[in-house]
Amino acid sequence: MNTIDQLLAGGGDAAAFARGYVRYVADLLQRLDTAAIRRVADLLLEARNAGRTVYVAGNGGSAATASHWAIDLMHGTFAPGGAPLRAISLVDSPPGLTAVANDRSYADVFTAQLEKVLRPDDVLVVISASGNSPNVVSAVEYAGAHGATTVGVLGFDGGRLKTLCHYTVMVPTPKGEYGPVEDVHLVLNHILTMWLKSRFATAAR
Predict the structure, then answer these.
(1) Which of 14, 69, 128, 140 has its CA 20 to 30 A from that of 163?
(2) Mean pLDDT of the chain
(3) Cα distance between residue 180 and residue 185, in whole Å
């Protein structure tokens, strides 16, 4: 039984569950590897300074987070007078995604896009609680084989992506705890966005 199931099994009302959930997510945040966050932040800073593109992908709730990450990295970090960080979400074109899923397979929906646009030294960020989704695994394998740097923002035990990605930020939990993992992934986005914005603003002065 995972932590969320234990909280629900306690039989308390919604307020009691909310208190337990907040405590649990706060504990996950406290246990984040801040050195891993620093490495990813430095990578994104370097990508911006070198004019590289950062691609972001995920499925389901992580697809929504990928869209949020991309828009925050591009618009939320921008400082007038400075260079932008070029960030693109690979989940934001339903016609493109469904065309590839129909003509090739759903496992290719991200790789097919990278085949057209990825350059050596670009960055691919994949967001996945399980770390095992075939389409993000395929995208990481393709990107790594073509000279890009890969980042896994992961949960549970990290799955296959834990060893495939060049950099990882883990939210280790029992399997199945999608909600808490996705909550922390969004907090990570805001941590990175705010830190990068401060650096870009300083450089633009």
Answers:
(1) 69
(2) 97
(3) 9
